[in-house]
Amino acid sequence: MTAELASLLAGDDLARVRAPLARAWTLPPAAYTEPRIFDLEVQRIFHREWICVARIEQLAEAGDYRCVNLVDQPVVVTRAADGALHAFSPICLHRAMPVVQGSGNARRFVCPYHNWTYELDGRLRSAPMMEGVEAFDARSCRLPTLAVEVWQGFVFVNMNADAAPLAEQLQPLADVIANYRFDQLVIAETLEFDSPWNWKILVENFMEAYHHIGTHRHTFEPVYPARASRIDDNGGGPWTLLRMPAVDTGADGDAEQGLPPLPGLTAQERHQLLAACVYPTLLFAAASGLGVWYQLEPSAHDRMLLRIHALLPREIAAVLDDAGRAAIAEQLRVVHLEDIEVNAGPWRGLNAPLTGQGRLSLYEKAVWQLNQQWLERLEHP
Question: 218-244 burial, b if ≥16 CB within 10 A, otherwise e?
Fold first, then answer.
């Protein structure tokens, strides 16, 4: 264990987290509430792991760009004229002014401060009025770059130049979800929520069906009962997968929205809900007719921005009318409003002085897997 972590969390507490699932405990409260723990997460997770920042269709055309934040590091992802994807810091090399914000389409980026101009791959194109500055060559200047990888239509970036490629690590998960064809889905609707609690609370809640019996007793539990759920072994890989078989109703597709089943699904796949996490913050789910992407953007130990995206086959999204979009958005909203209660509640509880660690259920195997990944990264940076 590193000295920094040992100074913040008791060794006995972490030993209980490392125990086999049948004897395991949750992370200690300080893992969520202590700002210095979050500082370690920034250094050892968010600045070193593959972070999902976009969908490929959001960067479809030459000149498309999207700005995101890896906590304290702004990043812009672009599609250059040659079709290549790039990711780099949008902070001007001159006086640290952001050269671009938001999203859109551009031929190049011009800093609004002193008009330094950058290409879509981050190279400095021109720097006005720099004549006479010794040893300055604009052609050799470039904004700091990040690695980029696309998996299943999700765009990832990584600040760690030594990071192993992602796709090979996720091959077992890719095999399971192959028939859902996530790379062929597009964003059809988006909801946004300010989320004033620790990011791990939401990730853990997303990855267990145990809470269906309480939180979703009138929504998910009658259709996807908690006792039928199971979690795949991940072999220590950077992913978790939760399978939730449906009660057999004899119906295919998401009937409430009138959506047909995704093409290519087996009968079993048409009657289950999947939820997956690519560590640390890519959360996605799939029912028979709909994919969902939870896009997390943590900014501190106690807050993050959450965007919930509905994903549909392009041909379905193209003909979906306003009523259909509204119906999908409302279902996502109803479910997340239920989940807000069990994010905000534990956040209050974790900040209470008498709160300690809790025992895990066998139905929380995915939470245990997530905790092992968290420990591995913080203990062995």
Answer: eebbebbbbeebebbebeebbbbbbbb
| Helix-helix angle 199-206:322-350, to 10 degrees | 120
Question: For residues 215 and 338, what is the distance between their CA atoms, to the nearest angstrom?
Answer: 6
Contact 277, 283 (CB under 8 A): yes
Q: Supply the pLDDT for residue 2.
A: 83
Neighbouring residues of 185: CB distance < 8 A, sequence distance ≥ 6: 153, 291, 311, 312, 313, 314
- What is the spatial distance between Cα 305 and Cα 22, in angstroms, rounded to a whole number? 34
Q: Which of 2-6, 85-89, 247-251, 377-381 is least confident? A: 247-251
Q: What is the DSSP letter of 196?
A: -
Whole-prediction pTM = 0.95
| 321 CB burial (10 A radius; 0-12, 13-18, 19+) | exposed
How far the first Cα of the chain sits from its last, in Å, is 10
Residue with tokens 């999204």: 317
pLDDT, residue 165, reads 97
